[in-house]
Structure formats: C-alpha cells, structure tokens
Specification:
- This protein is α/β, with parallel strands linked by helices.
- It has a domain of about 260 residues: Rossmann fold.
- The protein has 20 helices and 16 strands.
- Strands 4-5-15-10-11-14 form a 6-stranded mixed β-sheet, sandwiched between helices. A 5-stranded parallel β-sheet has the order 9-6-7-8-16, sandwiched between helices. A 3-stranded antiparallel β-sheet has the order 2-1-3.
- Helix 12 links the parallel strand 10 and strand 11.
- The longest helix has 20 residues.
- The chain starts with a strand and ends with a helix.
- About 50% of the residues are buried.
- The structure holds pyridoxal-5'-phosphate.
- The site of pyridoxal-5'-phosphate (PLP) has 17 residues, from helix 12.
C-alpha cells in the first residue's frame, strides 16, 4: 500500500513505513494511491472539530489501524497540550488574506502538528521487544518538537543533532534543557545541510546498522520530514483551513483558494500538494523562500542547482536549507518514474545539480508560484504589518506573507489566500519579556545537554554508540 520513490514494485504497510523512515533503496515512502475527498465531504468536515477532521483524513490513508485507535491517538495528540481547543485556528488578517496559525502546540512551531501525533502511531507500530533509536537532524524546530513527542516513550530513544550557531538562542535553549530519560542533544560544528547529510549517511550505512542491531537490539528511525509519518498529519491542517473558510461563509465547497507556505525542507508545502491531489480546490501553491532561494530558482526554471552556493544566515533559520529532501517525493508524483527520480537524485549528489525535462518543468510552473525574500525585507515587513494590523508575525511567517502579497498584487487575485504561520513570534525574538509561559520558563531551566561533536561520520557513530551503551538498561 506504500512504495518507495525509487522502486515501484516493493510494497510496505503504514507501520513499516513509519518504523523504517527511509526505504532500503535510499528512496522516500509514498502512498500507492492518493485518496479522494469529495465536495460533499468537505462541506461535512466544515461542521466538525479539528480532531474529527483529523480522524477523517487520517483514516483515508491506509494506516492499518482501526478508526477507534486512530480516534484515541488523535484525541491524545490534539488536546490540552495545545493552548487553543481550535488546535490550528484560521484567522482573518485583512482583505482576502487569512492566516493559518500552526504554532499553538507545546514548542510554539508548526512541527508540533505532526510530532505530537507521530510518536503515538510509532509506539503502536513497534513490535516489542524491538527497540528504536530516532536520529534527528534539525534546523531548529524539529529537534525540540521531536524531543517533546518522543520523550519517555517505551522502547524508543532519541538523539537530536543541531548545527551549532545556526539556530536561534531560544531554539537552542529549548533543546539543551530537554528533560527525559531517553533523550540526547548534540551540537555539530557545522550547518544544517551537513547535519542532515551526516544523519542520512548513518541511515544508509548497513554495517553500522547491523552493529546497533546485534549489540543493542536497536533499529534506527527518523523523525524528519523524510518520514511519511510527519507528512500525513500535515495534510490534515491544510484541509482544515479550507473547510474553515466554508464554515466562515467566505467560500462554498469547490471555490478555489491559494496557499502561501514558508518553505525549507519542502514538507509543509508537499502536504499541501497532497491535499490538492486529494481534491482540495487549490489554485497555486505559493512557495516562499528566504535568501537560501534554491527552491525559487528550481520551481521557476526546472534546474536544482547548489553549485557555488553556501548557506546564508537569515532571520528564518528553520528555512536555512539547500537540499530540500521532499523534492524527491514531488518529482515522483509529477513523473511516476522511479528510475528518472533516482537518476536526478544521484546527479544532485554527484554533480550538485540536476535539470528536469520540459514536461515536468511546465507542471512545476503550473502548480507553484515561487519567490524569495531578503533578510532586511523580512524584518522590515514584520514592523510594517504590525503597524497596519496590530498582528505580530515571526520571520518565517513574514517571508510567506511578503510573497503572498507580491502574488496578490501581480495576479489581481480576489479569492482567499491562506498564509501558513509556522512559528510564534516570541521564538525568534531576543526579548522574551512578553513571551508565553513555555518560553519564559526557559531562562530558569537547567542546561542538561552540552555535548558537541565534530562534523565527521566517525564522531557521529561514536556519539551514538556511547549514548546507547549508557542507556542500555532502559
Ligand atoms: C520547519 C519550519 C519551516 C519549513 O518547513 P518545511 O516543511 O521544512 O518546508 C518553516 N517555518 C518554521 C517555523 C519551521 O519550523
């Protein structure tokens, strides 16, 4: 029912996909078929609470879990751990602009939408006594959200690697003060792309994986958005935002909307692409990037090119990425050709670029609108929007809002545009004076994790082995 982007023949169950994280052939897992949503169903969903919408959408994807189990998991995942019972509220900003607030969870970033629920499915999928070690490379927000989701879960432990000096101070504090018996946080002296590529290398190292299995009965898995388990809960909120517009009387089922998404690893926007594939009437997916604008160029020209590029530091560190993993899934969905996808991915690895064919390039241009925002424009805009509306946004949301406004100006769009707001502003402010409780307490918390590691594969392996050795009794 699930397959790899690099092989059409082998089939996997949802539980296997969740536990494995990445396919043995190096590809990413995708469902064989995209389920459909009818306009009637969209109308029905508009009367439901977020949790009911989530159960409905998750149940359309073949999870292998009975609806009752899904329902229990959803009710546990989206509960008082969020600071609003709406979970992902859609608010009217001005004119035809609506903001989807995705940061009401425990870590104040949209990663909670997936990482509050994925570990619950993961725990259900485990066949005891097998043990799992979740390896995470984070550009800032995934790390904390994954630590919160996986802490103290039975038969699971987690190590988070983050790029030292490339995350915000608050993001770093959130991670280094993390409590839990089964967690570890390690700073890598390099940037996020390096962290991500080191972790990927570990996943693909058969010999090392065998050592972990024989010595510690432990299998590696991933909580990054290469794991399908991260993406499916994200499809839910895109559907939810659309049906909220129906509930608010702004649209009728079937009317088209546009969605603007601040993009890094291409997970959030890929989830929106899936929602569109299910039948959600989305005209354009607006891909908003910061100065690390590889995706802008790719979606406009069909050339993915990281030659002569190094990572630029921006006020939106969670988007400071050059190699966006989920592009691989997009390419599969557009071409249906695993051989072609493997070739492009290998070309990127070897030559630091690849170029798609004309048909694929035209599809990209048809579906996406892409643009990017400079550091200075991003920061100025936060102030300007606040003066105008008294609504304060974080730098990631600012990138998405600027690009949405440029799109609106260019196309004269009068239909609703949804702007995904991916983090609460306080997460990226130097001043925490007016910040909510979760952030205020940070300054009083004890720093537990001080470990640093050089960006070398051998050092990462030693770190993992030492961690497992010291936690062997858990
Ligand atoms: C992770 C993150 C993004 C980028 O999302 P992707 O799914 O990686 O494209 C944007 N904003 C914030 C605040 C994030 O944490």
């Amino acid at each position: 029912m699930y397959k790899s982007t690099r092989d059409n023949n082998k089939k996997y169950s949802f539980s296997e996909v969740l536990l494995k994280g990445i396919a043995d052939d190096g590809g990413l897992f995708i469902p064989e078929k995209i389920p459909k949503l009818t306009l009637n169903q969209l109308t029905q969903l508009s009367d439901m609470a977020y949790q009911k919408r989530a159960v409905f959408v998750l149940n359309l994807f073949k999870t292998g879990f009975p609806k009752g189990v899904i329902s229990n998991i959803v009710n546990q995942a989206y509960s008082t751990n969020f600071d609003t019972s709406l979970i992902a509220p859609l608010i009217h900003l001005k004119d035809n602009q609506y903001v989807l607030e995705l940061w009401h969870g425990p870590t104040l970033a949209f990663k909670d939408m997936a990482l509050q629920i994925m570990p619950l499915f993961f725990s259900k999928a485990i066949k005891k006594p097998n043990r799992y070690l979740i390896l995470v490379a984070t550009s800032g927000d995934t790390g904390k959200a994954a630590l919160e989701g996986y802490k103290d879960k039975e038969n699971i432990s987690i190590i988070v690697f983050y790029p030292e000096k490339h995350v915000s101070k608050i993001q770093e504090l959130q991670m280094t003060t993390q409590e839990g018996e089964n967690v570890s946080v390690v700073a890598i002296k390099d940037n996020f792309d390096k962290c991500q590529s080191l972790v990927k290398e570990i996943f693909n190292d058969k010999r090392f994986n065998n050592i972990l299995k024989s010595k510690f009965k432990t299998t590696l898995s991933s909580a990054n958005s290469i794991n399908w388990g991260r993406l499916v809960p994200q499809i839910v909120y895109h559907v939810s935002s659309y049906v909220d517009l129906i509930r608010m009387g702004v649209i009728s089922a079937g009317d088209q909307i546009d969605i603007s998404i601040p993009t890094g690893n291409f997970g959030n926007i890929l989830a929106a692409f899936y929602a569109r594939g299910m039948g959600l009437p989305v005209r354009k997916l607006i891909c908003a990037s910061n100065a690390n604008n590889v995706l802008t160029k790719f979606l406009q020209t069909g050339v993915y090119d990281i030659r002569n590029r190094s990572l630029v530091k921006t006020p939106s560190p969670s988007m400071d990425i050059l190699v966006a993993s989920n592009i691989e899934r997009l390419l599969y969905l557009l071409t249906n050709n695993p051989k072609q996808v493997s070739d492009w991915m290998n070309h990127l690895k070897l030559n630091k670029f690849f170029m798609v064919d004309i048909a694929t390039k035209n599809k990209l241009k048809d579906i996406f609108y892409a643009d990017w925002v400079s550091n200075i424009d991003c920061l100025k805009h936060i102030k300007a929007l606040y003066s105008e509306t008294k609504y304060l946004i974080d730098p990631h949301t600012s990138v998405a809002h600027i690009v949405a406004e440029r799109y609106i100006a260019k196309t004269n769009i009068i239909k609703p545009v949804i702007i995904c707001s991916t983090a609460h502003w306080s997460k990226f402010s130097r001043s925490i004076v007016n910040a909510p409780r979760q952030i205020k307490n940070l300054s009083r918390k004890k720093i537990i994790h001080r470990q640093k590691c050089s960006p070398k594969i051998e050092s990462i392996k030693t770190t993992i082995l030492e961690f497992l050795a010291s936690h062997d009794n858990i």
